[in-house]
Design goal:
Residues 354-373 are annotated as: Disordered. By secondary structure, the protein is α+β, with helices and mostly antiparallel strands. It has helices spanning 15-18, 29-64, 71-77, 88-95, 271-277, 306-310, 355-358, and strands at residues 141-150, 155-156, 161-166, 212-216, 222-228, 239-245, 249-250, 256-257, 263-268, 320-323, 332-340, 346-349, 361-364.
Length: 373
């Protein structure tokens, strides 16, 4: 069965959201349940509410700042909302949380995003289909606007499943909280293909799902995710993993299975921004910032060379970032566009002993496609 995002067509009103403003927190079991339901509603409405807020902020800046532009205003101009005023009909539409139709793919040149490793932290069948993958993780609000284009036509590619996973603010993946027993004091490898890296943390918690989520692209070839800005760990620049699936089956618990894979990649963030975010709590609690722990790895020093290799053919694997508000702490939106080959079929195999010391070898099923870089 081909899955089409049902969540995007659910209609909810902002009345539910205003109910959130309560004098005290939820107490009884039913109150807690209701609170969670409302929170989910809020998540679903978040892009519309953010757009509406942005519009009001733009109006505010017009009045208070004499029209000085806000970063957020720039972002939502593409959204089809009027520059200076919300038409009541548009407002009604925004408040009704209609399907997200306003997103437009960011146009970069039409280049194939190179295949990279899925790394050791992918969970087969583990990811939920959802837009908000933050759960209760602390960090900077980070919206990811991921566009997919077909490299053969340079047209946006609707209805492919974009699957993301990344580390939390202090560098851990859901399900992998601790080093292997006996490896607690391990130092990064000094030489060889794993130079700069440490052993992968084993999956010891099967339940955790945070900062992992998959969503089909809309008619504009865009999937939008809400998350927290990722942290980093030994040997790697800050990155977000991605897979793209052309077809998938939804399991009763909201996760999916898929046999075909058309892309595996990683997105990065410019170092200049990374080092600013490193100063903010909880990013400044990253264990690697403790004396003698080595600190952050810059993109150009990435131990797996993924950032470096990804620049082949002029592809920029970095998010194009804008502030959501007037200051960094109000959060960020990152745009990135991937060119994929729809005729490609990869099979990702996690073979820790293979080449490059533990990266996944991706077997192209079609001879037309590139092999792993
Ligand atoms: C991106 O821009 C190029 C050059 O302006 C254009 O030819 C191409 O159709 C655009 N692609 C998308 C996906 O908008
Ligand atoms: C990241 O996850 C680890 C492992 O679950 C946890 O110990 C740490 O507190 C988390 N970081 C933040 C900022 O919540
Ligand atoms: C969902 O169900 C599948 C199949 O039973 C299972 O393998 C997976 O662990 C479940 N995932 C979650 C997040 O519950």
């Amino acid at each position: 069965m081909r899955f089409i995002s049902a969540a995007a067509t659910a209609a909810v009103t902002l009345a539910a959201a205003s109910g959130l403003v309560a004098a005290h927190g939820p107490e009884s079991k039913s109150e807690v349940r209701e609170f969670h339901d409302r929170q989910k509603t809020m998540y679903h409405c978040a892009p519309q509410i953010a757009a509406y807020n942005a519009q009001r902020r733009a109006d505010w800046s017009q009045k208070v700042l004499g029209g000085a532009p806000l970063a957020a205003k720039k972002y939502f101009v593409d959204g089809g909302y009027k520059e200076n005023q919300v038409d009541p009909a548009d407002a009604a539409e925004i408040m009704a949380c209609n399907p997200i139709t306003e997103t437009k793919i960011r146009n970069s040149s039409c280049v194939l995003a190179p295949e990279t490793t899925e790394g050791p932290y992918y969970h087969t069948q583990g990811h939920l289909i959802r837009s908000n993958m933050a759960e209760y993780q602390l960090g900077l609000l980070f919206l990811m606007n991921v566009g997919v284009i077909d490299v053969e036509t340079c047209e946006p590619l609707p209805n492919v499943l974009v699957d993301l996973w990344h580390a939390n603010a202090t560098g851990y993946y859901a399900g992998h909280p601790t080093p292997k027993v006996g490896m607690e004091n391990e130092k990064p490898m000094a030489t060889g293909p794993r130079r700069g890296l440490m052993s992968a943390y084993p999956r010891t918690n099967e339940e955790e799902t945070w900062l992992r989520g998959a969503l089909p692209t809309d008619s504009n070839g865009v999937a939008e995710f809400t998350s927290v800005f990722p942290g980093y760990y030994t040997g790697r620049g800050t990155h977000v993993h991605v897979k793209v699936f052309p077809e998938w089956d939804v399991l009763p618990n909201g996760t999916f299975t898929s046999t075909n894979l058309i892309h595996t990649g990683q997105f990065f963030v410019e170092d200049a921004l990374n080092v600013e975010i490193d100063k903010i709590h909880p990013y400044n609690q990253n264990p690697l910032l403790a004396p003698g722990k080595g600190g952050r790895t810059r993109n150009w020093e990435d131990s797996l060379n993924i950032y470096q290799d990804s620049h082949d053919n002029g592809y920029m694997p970095t998010f194009d970032i804008e502030f959501l508000g007037g200051v960094l702490q109000q959060g960020l939106i990152g745009y990135v566009t991937m060119g994929v080959n729809t005729k490609a079929r990869y099979e990702a195999k996690w073979t820790p002993e293979s080449g490059r010391g533990g990266v996944v070898s991706q077997v192209p099923v079609s001879s037309e496609t590139k092999t792993e870089l």
